[in-house]
Amino acid sequence: MTAGSGADGPPAVLDHLVFATPDLSATVAEVAALTGVRPVPGGSHPGRGTRNHLLGLGGGAYLEIIGPDPEQPAPDRPRWFGIDALTGPRLVTWAVRVTGIADRVAAARARGHDPGAAVAMSRRTPDGGRLAWQLTPPGTGDGSAPFLLDWGATPHPSAGLPVLPLVALRAVHPDPAAARAAWAALGVRWPGELTTGPDVRLTAVVEGRYGRVAFGRGAVPV
Fold first, then answer.
1. Which of 50, 197, 205, 207 is 20 to 30 A from 63 (CA-CA)?
2. Transmembrane ranges (predicted)?
3. Model confidence over 127-137: pLDDT tens digits?
4. Which residues of 27-66 are buried (b: 16+ CB within 10 A; e: fewer)?
């Protein structure tokens, strides 16, 4: 699913959606029960205090379910995605896949939007492999603007995942013009519907084995 025009390089595409939770094991079990597909263990993020599970969305995109990692000590800084303040699972933000992330950051800053400096990350996969990538700090705003992610030469984690096709994306924002301005500065667009509402809400609808499921503030059948 294309998320940008590629004015600053190859087109940006939807990389993944972030469904954050204060209780990873409980949310994974709930998602499996609702969709009929159990999310696949991803891995731990050393020093960040988080761990994830993944589901494919089709088109090279995936859903990341992320929460506290009970096998890590509490980090010395807040966990990304506002996880420490969550009382339940929530679709908190989205990521777009780019190449040449440093140039993308510089271009966005020149247009008036600072996504933050790219940082290097890595994690081990369950089979002992290693993924390495660069990303701009996620969760620094209200979640409506995506963070940028550059996988470099690392194989994309969507490969081989069970797929729940993504059928709809919806965003609600109190100031849609401001949201569009941030997306334009990043050279991307929201690949779904945008409407006006009192606060920011993101919703993704997937086709599960038992019917459609909406991921937003929680996960519910629709």
1. 197
2. none
3. 888 889 999 99
4. bbebbeebbebebbebbbbeebbbbbbbbbbbeebbbbbb
